Amino acid sequence: MTRRFLFVLGSSRPDGNTELLARTAAEQLPAGTEQEWFDLAEQPLPDFVDVRHDAEIPRPEGAAAHLLDATLAATDLVIASPLYWYSVSAQTKRYLDHWAGWLRLPGVDFKARMAGRTLWGVTALAHEEFEVADPLVGTLRTSAAYLGMRFGGVLLGNGSKPGDVRTDTEALARAKTFFAQEAPLARFPYER
Ligand SMILES: Cc1cc2nc3c(=O)[nH]c(=O)nc-3n(C[C@H](O)[C@H](O)[C@H](O)COP(=O)(O)O)c2cc1C
């Protein structure tokens, strides 16, 4: 099966460190790997409204419809979010919240179709001690576990202003092999 990577960019500014790190990792993907990049700042999703238990759940429209299709088409989903308050950005969180609606959309079978796909994370943060990003890592890993997905881990890089991550040579080196790593089935914390 041809691998298809969907990169979902969650920064609130263009050309940031997270995107730079994600693009460095993507450069190493084997030829023939399909890639789509979706920038949540350029094509914002509407606020999520919880209509899961209403009689009728409206079909997504516009950017949300496109992103649903792109998510379902991806074998590998890369959430590239800067670290904001130790977790994912609001734009990224809104994307994850929309999953809760997509899970209930009749005829979509979101959970069954996402099972077995691989979730990866990329993040940039100003703090030099990367353990502070544990809440972001936990959010992504546990969300992957909920959907029965594989989890390839999170590529972390240091930087504050745009371009700073270029000086994090260790992160750039990790980026070179990041997507070649094993991605085991994600587990809930109580299963490990
Ligand atoms: C709203 C906001 C919250 C942030 N929270 C954190 C944080 O919790 N820990 C941290 O190390 N850096 C934090 N930062 C710094 C960013 O993670 C850092 O500037 C990063 O390089 C931004 O990624 P980007 O260039 O891809 O946008 C925060 C920045 C903003 C704007």
Radius of gyration: 16 Å
Bound ligands, each once: flavin mononucleotide
Q: Per DSSP, what share of the residues sits in E-state strands of 2 or more residues?
A: 15-25%
Spans of at least 5 consecutive residues with low confidence:
none
Distance between the termini: 30 Å
Q: What percentage of residues falls in helices of 4 or more residues? A: 25-40%
The ordered string of helix (H) and strand (E) elements is: EHEHEHHEHEH
What is the annotated CATH architecture? Answer: 3-Layer(aba) Sandwich
State the major sheet. 5 strands, parallel
CATH superfamily: Flavodoxin domain
User: How many discrete domains?
Assistant: 1
Pfam families: FMN_red
GO molecular function, one term: oxidoreductase activity
Keywords: Flavoprotein, FMN
Domain NADPH-dependent FMN reductase-like: 5-100
Give a brief outline of the structure.
Helix content is 32%, strand content 18%. With 192 residues, it is of the alpha/beta class.
SSE diagram, text form:
Elements: E1 4-9, H1 17-26, E2 34-39, H2 62-73, E3 76-80, H3 90-102, H4 110-114, E4 118-125, H5 134-146, E5 150-158, H6 169-177
Helix pairs in contact: 1-6
This protein binds flavin mononucleotide (FMN).
Flavin mononucleotide (FMN) is lined by residues 11, 13, 16-19, 82-86, 124-127, 132, 159-160, 162.
